Amino acid sequence: MESNAMVWFRKGLRIHDNPALDRARRGSSHVFPVFVLDPSYLRPDPSASSPGSARAGLNRIRFLLDCLTDLDSSLRRLGSHLLVLRGDPDPAAVICRVIKEWRIGKLCYEFDSEPYGQARDKQVEDFTSKLGIEVFTPVSHTLFDPVEVITKNGGRPPLTYKSFVALAGEPSESLVETYSQLPPVGNVGESELLSIPTIEELGYKDIEQEEFSPFRGGETVALQRLEEALKDKEWIANFEKPKGDPSAFMKPATTVLSPYLKFGCLSSRYFYQCLQDVYQTVGKHTSPPVSLVGQLLWREFFYTVAFGTPNFNQMKGNKICKQIPWGDDEELLVAWREGRTGYPWIDAIMIQLKKWGWMHHLARHSVACFLTRGDLFIHWEKGRDVFERLLIDSDWAINNGNWLWLSCSAFFNQYHRIYSPISFGKKYDPDGKYIRHFLPMLKDMPSEYIYEPWTAPLCVQKKANCIVGKDYPRPVVAHSTASKECRRRMGEAYAKDQSIETDNKAVSGSKIV
Ligand code: FAD
């Protein structure tokens, strides 16, 4: 008797520790591994401010294609292959169609807690429940099930990291079994299957960008990167955030595993266990919130709060978000987005975002603070949108959570502590190597002026081939006065808005200079 199962890949683009794939293969004569390409995610948008689609920058699209190619190769080694379908009119509708066509009796896909994923999966659930198909949707993108944590907390998400950690407990163990063979793919009938497209086949031609992200996607790279990090047991054991140099770009100060976790090329559960194994062998190690395990728990914290908070991604209608009368100066926003604020530290970070799609955590802090409560007083949702499109690790829960944090809209309320766009970066990188790399027009500026080129005498600017106001912009605001005005406006907004839900008065934050 034939029994057809389908594993529907969305995130979770991996073979290791993949409960959906594991369940699909058990007792099935055929397994159909499917990925649906969503045209709205991939289609070039010529009106966008940088190469990519309306929803994703080119770096992330390329990263996704890498992930799919790698997944397909791994499946082929197991006697299977990835079935790539066009998501017309939308991915859920396509899945419903092929479930019928291919006589699928068992459908397996990873639980997705994001609103977009929830709505998409609801469509499929409604369809499968009518057909009486077995559906398995394990929680495997995160360490913990947000529903369980919220239930344990009486139906509300815990609103501090500490209370989250106290509730969460230990995650379940990852699957250790490795496969040598998967059941073969069944008959796909008349369905149109696509090959994994290249960037050029998607319509991205003649892209003028001299530098792309050095981070390539896929489970193979993810596991290599993890293995490399784990070799340095001392580093793992002593990892402490927010310590670490945000300007280190050739060898970043953190793992750069976020894009792999975002697409699920790396199982967070497996990562967590590897860290625990290192801790056991070395003995003494750092602890949450600053340790590497602590970083994974930040991820969990934001996933849980995001899942349990209506309108988490906006200020309006969001019970945990301070109501702040943010400005909407389009010129300032564009200057920030395009790396033209006139503050080299801020601009270099924004150019790294454009070129690489990844920046260090404290670099993200600097630019998010600058845009919102530090200098420009622009709505955090605008900055969130720019990050959402350009980051290769762009993640709905984590991105919104951190923007809420940095703008002092939720979780963190010490709005008087503002990052200096001058002295903060200088502390780590006095010579400005990071700035010189990402802002080549400043490469010959003497170190003493690299963070404040507008203070360099004209003869120095001429010698450095960089005239401020011509080759590099003047500062869009004066930090000393702009930051004072921001503090005043935040104070006013806080005084007016006392209605915020917290489960502790204040959330302790990372040290800000
Ligand atoms: P590591 O320090 O090596 O940490 C390991 C993992 O822990 C990360 O890969 C990540 O999954 C998790 N993690 C680390 N820091 C955080 C954090 N503060 N919150 C939640 N999880 C964390 N991270 C994203 O993955 N996607 C985003 O869209 C995103 N947007 C952000 C927006 C702003 C404004 C800020 C300030 C931070 C944002 N972060 C985001 C969090 C953090 O900056 C990145 O996760 C981290 O820099 C990724 O680098 P890494 O993998 O080397 O981190």
From TrEMBL:
<dbReference type="GO" id="GO:0006139">
    <property type="term" value="P:nucleobase-containing compound metabolic process"/>
</dbReference>
<dbReference type="GO" id="GO:0005634">
    <property type="term" value="C:nucleus"/>
</dbReference>
<feature type="domain" description="Photolyase/cryptochrome alpha/beta">
    <location>
        <begin position="3"/>
        <end position="143"/>
    </location>
</feature>
<dbReference type="InterPro" id="IPR036134">
    <property type="entry name" value="Crypto/Photolyase_FAD-like_sf"/>
</dbReference>
<dbReference type="GO" id="GO:0043153">
    <property type="term" value="P:entrainment of circadian clock by photoperiod"/>
</dbReference>
<dbReference type="InterPro" id="IPR002081">
    <property type="entry name" value="Cryptochrome/DNA_photolyase_1"/>
</dbReference>
<dbReference type="Pfam" id="PF03441">
    <property type="entry name" value="FAD_binding_7"/>
</dbReference>
<comment type="similarity">
    <text>Belongs to the DNA photolyase class-1 family.</text>
</comment>
<keyword id="KW-0547">Nucleotide-binding</keyword>
<dbReference type="GO" id="GO:0032922">
    <property type="term" value="P:circadian regulation of gene expression"/>
</dbReference>
<protein>
    <recommendedName>
        <fullName>(6-4)DNA photolyase</fullName>
        <ecNumber>4.1.99.13</ecNumber>
    </recommendedName>
</protein>
<keyword id="KW-0274">FAD</keyword>
<dbReference type="GO" id="GO:0071949">
    <property type="term" value="F:FAD binding"/>
</dbReference>
<dbReference type="InterPro" id="IPR036155">
    <property type="entry name" value="Crypto/Photolyase_N_sf"/>
</dbReference>
<dbReference type="Pfam" id="PF00875">
    <property type="entry name" value="DNA_photolyase"/>
</dbReference>
<dbReference type="InterPro" id="IPR006050">
    <property type="entry name" value="DNA_photolyase_N"/>
</dbReference>
<dbReference type="GO" id="GO:0005737">
    <property type="term" value="C:cytoplasm"/>
</dbReference>
<feature type="binding site">
    <location>
        <begin position="393"/>
        <end position="395"/>
    </location>
    <ligand>
        <name>FAD</name>
    </ligand>
</feature>
<dbReference type="GO" id="GO:0003914">
    <property type="term" value="F:DNA (6-4) photolyase activity"/>
</dbReference>
<feature type="binding site">
    <location>
        <begin position="254"/>
        <end position="258"/>
    </location>
    <ligand>
        <name>FAD</name>
    </ligand>
</feature>
<feature type="site" description="Electron transfer via tryptophanyl radical">
    <location>
        <position position="380"/>
    </location>
</feature>
<dbReference type="GO" id="GO:0003677">
    <property type="term" value="F:DNA binding"/>
</dbReference>
<feature type="site" description="Electron transfer via tryptophanyl radical">
    <location>
        <position position="403"/>
    </location>
</feature>
<keyword id="KW-0285">Flavoprotein</keyword>
<feature type="binding site">
    <location>
        <begin position="295"/>
        <end position="302"/>
    </location>
    <ligand>
        <name>FAD</name>
    </ligand>
</feature>
<dbReference type="InterPro" id="IPR014729">
    <property type="entry name" value="Rossmann-like_a/b/a_fold"/>
</dbReference>
<dbReference type="InterPro" id="IPR005101">
    <property type="entry name" value="Cryptochr/Photolyase_FAD-bd"/>
</dbReference>
<feature type="site" description="Electron transfer via tryptophanyl radical">
    <location>
        <position position="326"/>
    </location>
</feature>
<dbReference type="GO" id="GO:0003904">
    <property type="term" value="F:deoxyribodipyrimidine photo-lyase activity"/>
</dbReference>
